[in-house]
Design a protein that fits this description.
It is flat, with a radius of gyration of 13 Å. It has three helices and no strands. The N and C termini lie far apart (about 35 Å). By secondary structure, it is an all-alpha fold. About 0% of the residues are buried.
């Protein structure tokens, strides 16, 4: 299972920059931050619920 998770993280990080290449810089930065939070939150507690709540809080600001 850990190998699968590590592979998913690798694929996400590999695809991220080409995927966001044509976006404005503020959007790129927001996506990078959200991606990092999701990856590290999942590694820490095995779920993305905390990241979803944090993303929703930021959207309201």
């Amino acid at each position: 299972m850990e190998e699968h998770s590590a592979r998913q993280v690798q694929l996400t990080l590999t695809a991220l920059e080409p995927f966001i290449a044509n976006l404005p810089e503020p959007q790129k930065e927001r996506i990078r931050v959200e991606t990092a939070r999701r990856i590290f939150a999942e590694q820490r507690d095995g779920s993305s619920a905390a990241v979803t709540a944090a993303s929703e809080d930021e959207a309201e600001e």
